[in-house]
Amino acid sequence: MQLDAESVEWTRALESTGLVREQALARLHEMLLRIARGELRRRGGQHPISGPELDDLAHQAAADALLAITGKLSGFRGESRFTTWAYRFVILEVSTKLGRHFWRKPTVALDAQDWDRLPDRFGMDPADQAQWQGLVEALHRAVEEDLTPRQRQVFVAIVLQGVPLDALVAQLGSNRNAIYKTLFDARRKLRATLAANGYLSNAGNPAAVVLADVVLAEADEGRRS
Amino acid sequence: MSDWPALDRFLATDPGDVGCEQALEVLHVYVEMVLEDADGSAARRYPGVAAHLAACPPCDDDFQGLLAATGATS
After folding, report:
1. Would you tell me how many other CB atoms lie within 10 Å of the CB of residue A203?
2. How many domains does chain A have?
3. pLDDT digit string (tens) for A131-181?
4. A186 in any annotated domain
5. Fewer beta carbons within 10 angstroms: which end of chain A, N or C?
6. Is B69 exposed, middle or buried (CB count within 10 Å of its CB: 0-12, 13-18, 19+)?
């Protein structure tokens, strides 16, 4: 794959030695720091961090991203511009660091399984309780009886306790893909049970799933409270 | 669709969803396609990534962040 001129310049400088490499590293670090600061600002509604602590997090993200980039430089194949490839590292570092930071001042009670919050989370009006009560009870039963212990742990943490997924990743020493897959399987299993018992339609399985609406709103709420 | 669309959507899963690892692996390529061509070519080229970003808040956040960072500097 043919690299654009700027990407060629970046890779050559970073693969060289001496002053050329040092200057490229300094310039790249400066760019990564700027992106990290911008990303932390952009996600401001999701975390309570500010001031020097926020800047410290940006510095940590930039430093770790720089290390990852230099370590994986041979993996850059020019499928995108070098800077886009490099920015991805710092954006992911910001996510990881925010996930870890969540536990410094956790805003959720991890010993609680607050099923009373579920109706509100899914937009169920208390006035309609007679209609959704059976569904919520069936869901609760399915979580207890159909999920594996790991699926139940992830479901409870993310859905009932409002723990952000990246924070759960940090707490369990896992990775995002594994936790997402665990929740994905739990969702599929719960849907099948509820559909089999007539609570949900089997036809209602849209291609684009909006887990984001529910989980992000809950994470925001948890971090702000 | 049931009477409880939010729960219905939450429990729905797309078998084409590629998961976090694969989506993040090509995120830089996907972002540039989105920036260069707004007619949905990225989602057509990578339907499994589009399905995943629609379902995974953390990965969608990374996508939005990279889109903002790259768009601001391109």
Report:
1. 9
2. 2
3. 889 999 999 999 999 999 999 999 999 998 889 999 999 999 999 999 999
4. yes
5. N
6. buried
Whether A42 and B24 lie within 8 Å, measured CB to CB: no
CA dist., res. B64 & res. B69, Å (int)? 9
Q: Are residues A77 and A139 in the same domain?
A: no
- Tell me how far apart the terminal alpha carbons of chain B are, to the nearest angstrom: 42
Residue A11 falls inside a structural domain: yes
Taking an 8 Å cut-off on Cβ atoms, the answer to whether B58 and A164 are in contact is yes
Does residue A109 sit within a domain? no
Domain of A62? 5-104
Q: Which pTM value belongs to this model?
A: 0.87
Count Cβ neighbours within 10 Å for each residue of A41-67 and write b for 16 or more, e otherwise: ebbeebbebeeeebeebbebbbbbbbe
A158 and A94 in a common domain: no
* CATH classification of the domain holding A89: 1.10.1740
Residue in B with minimal Cα distance to A125: B4
Nearest to A212 among B19, B24, B60 (CB): B60
Residue of A131, A209, A214, A215 for testing the chain B interface, max B β-carbons within 10 Å: A209
Residue A110 domain-assigned (yes or no)? no
CB distance from A172 to chain B under 8 Å? no
* Beta carbons of A64 and A95 less than 8 angstroms apart: no
Looking at A104, A128, A156, the residue that finishes a domain is: A104
A99 and A121 co-located in one domain: no
Domain holding A158: CATH number?
A: 1.10.10.10
- State pLDDT tens for residues A50-79: 999 999 999 999 999 999 999 999 999 999
Q: Determine which of B2, B3, B28, B32 to mutate to test the interface with A (most A C-beta atoms within 10 Å).
A: B28
Say whether the ipTM exceeds 0.85: yes
Q: With an 8 Å Cβ cutoff, is A187 touching chain B?
A: yes
